[in-house]
Fold each of these.
Amino acid sequence: MSHLHLVDGAVPFLWWILGYILTIGILMFAVTKIKKEELSKKIPFVGVISALMLITMSVPLGFLPFHLNLTVLVGILGGPWIGFVAVFIVNLILAMIGHGGITVVGLNTLVIGTEVIAGYFIFKAIIKHIKPITAAAVAVVITLLISTTLMASIVMLTNTGLEYALPHSEEVHESEHDVHDELHEHEELEEQLADIHIFVLSGWGAVIAILLTGIVLEALVTSLIIGFFMKVRPEMIIGNAELRMQN
């Protein structure tokens, strides 16, 4: 759900360069943490999940102006480091097909990669105390709150217009050419908010409703998928050692 829908030129040079530097640093660290035997076992499956993540991140959910990410699911199934690499690849592909600019790939990888890493560790921390399906839902909620806060912080720090960061809002987004032509002619925040509508709400009420609805749907879908894997391949969710302890 958390994804900066920004065209090239919307973010100042210093910020997107910093985003790439931090992303490359984490990617290098991730590569050192991935064992060869782990990679050979999990990369085919994570490739399938990454393809699913690519589809869900590029298609809005009908009249609701957001998309699913499934990043916490990828983190749980593939681990935080393979998951982070997958997120970078997905963001790069999305940028190449016009879903955001190439210059924002680094920042988007940091935001969405946070969901993979935080989701994995939160899930592993609480699964010892509650059921996997519930743990997955809790991990998604906490993780999306963290990533959404990070996304909002980037928008504010880079002085980017609110309308360019909201996901798939047809009422708010202009064409990329129009956005590029008017990057330096942003309206006041109140005017931007007035253009955001969902159901009977507008302004900040609409923004909060969009975010909460997205969080609930992401948590629901992730929990359902985790529940399915717990029935057919539970060791992929909680590991063989934890599975033996539960039995």
Amino acid sequence: MSRVALVTGGNRGIGLSIALRLRAAGYTVVVGTRSGTAPEGLHAVQMDVSQSASIDAGFTAIEEQFGPVEILIANAGMTRDTLLMRMTDDDIDEVLQTNLAGSIKLARRALRSMLRARYGRIIFMSSVVGIIGSAGQVNYSAAKSGLIGAARSLVREVGGRGITVNVLTPGFVNTDMTAELPEERRAEIVSIVPLGRYAEPDEIATVVEFLVGDGAGYITGAVIPIDGGLGMGD
């Protein structure tokens, strides 16, 4: 039986690339989305990561159809970008609830079966701005930074049970979202990235595939940048 992997926010961009790559590698992949649908013929389950009841219902559906989740890629996220003085309470609360609390709640639910099996792989999708900061993204940066502390604390709780927890901090990636940026802004971003380009989604997926494999069983608590050198030294 192939291992069961849940990828939240797996209906587009980085999440979709991860889901397709893991499926090609032989994993049973289920994509968690708010709509409960996913492209490319992937298995999908309805899941709103900001709601504990929705997370539990999604996991239960996966367990009944495919078995326990052994690999969790907490990728779902959102932005509400603006300067802090203009940021509403909802802008703050929704971003923290989805990007930070949602990932923590996903891990909590996944641990039910991982602890029994004494095996698990958890990956939190953070961001380079969680390390270096970004004007207009105080809420998002705080949430993504918080994932690092959450992951490393969890490592100390469950490391002895064969469960690894790691964090990826991608930089700017070619997705539908970044494609909508004005060309001037895209050029400005490329100018500050040492490699001089955006990442491709599959470059993130490649690292995920390695981390969830047996060869990465001794890597845990790591914060792995995939940012073209943008955050180096921080």
